[in-house]
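Review form for a predicted model. The reviewer records the input and the model, then writes brief findings.
Reviewer: anonymous (R2)
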Amino acid sequence: MTDQAAVGRNARGEWRPENRIASAPINQWPPDFRALTRWFPRYIAPNNVVWLAAALVTWTWLTPALGDMANLEVWWIALLLARNLALVLLLFGGLHLYLYIFKRQGDATRFTVKPFATDSARFLFRNQVRDNMFRTLVSAVPVFTGYEVLTYWGFANGYLGAFGAEVGSLLFWAWFVALLVATPIIHSAHFYFIHRLLHVRALYRRVHALHHHNVEVGPWSGLAMHPVEHLLYFSTVVVQWLLALHPVNALFQIQIAVYYAAMAHTGFDKVKVGERVAIEGGSHFHYLHHKYFECNYGGSLVALDRLFGTFHDGSPESHEAMRRRLADIRAAEG
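Model under review:
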């Protein structure tokens, strides 16, 4: 496939979208109802509908009956672990094969053409992709499976979902749907605060720096983290432990955290399927965080970066503002 974006690359092989990054209109006050009306269908479909469908399929056909999970037994925990390994291999591995092995869209909308590291002491096995795969499969998958196990065990024993509307009532279904719609927003807000915590110097050096070894990112980079970061990142499901009346809400919260990590690290702005279909592939917003480290801690869905002055929209003006902010921080620290 011809690289239509090549004309926009600089001398270092870097490319960025023409439009500046904009926050979602849910962050505007007073509300712009016309903008919200245009934005909401794009928020729901196609991406979030696909991830919700995956969660419903997972719950309906790939998860034991809730009553069978009232006791912590090896058979169903192992089943969840094997299922999650397969799902991660399918999505993360499939994206890597499609974009980087088979190169089905060349370098079109790829943020940088720099290759993944293949002889670097920063990575296990001196290889970035192998390192990322190992950390994802050996650490990330068991951690989020552990959260899922605790979720089902808690619901099965009445420790979770015990308060609120009666199951099957109109109020129950209204709350169920409202939480499904809010799931990406919950993820975005939680990610911002956890991510800022991980950039505190002590945690950064001991934990988060490992993820930032990935400057040139690919799908497997998404969950290539220290085990402590996995515990913090997937703790987003705790919000659903407090709010949800049904385990599907919690499952969707966990899977959104998994799927968003892969998509935000594809290294491409869009994943093209044929000549007409283009799926929002990577996140230029998050790519800039990997490039510059001290900006864009959350996402453009919830404008916490704007609120706290760490927003970078990809423009030269934003870059200069970031440089001034970091210079002021260094001066204050002496």
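Findings: The CA atoms of residues 99 and 105 lie 7 Å apart.
Further findings: The radius of gyration is 20 Å.
Recommendation: see findings above.
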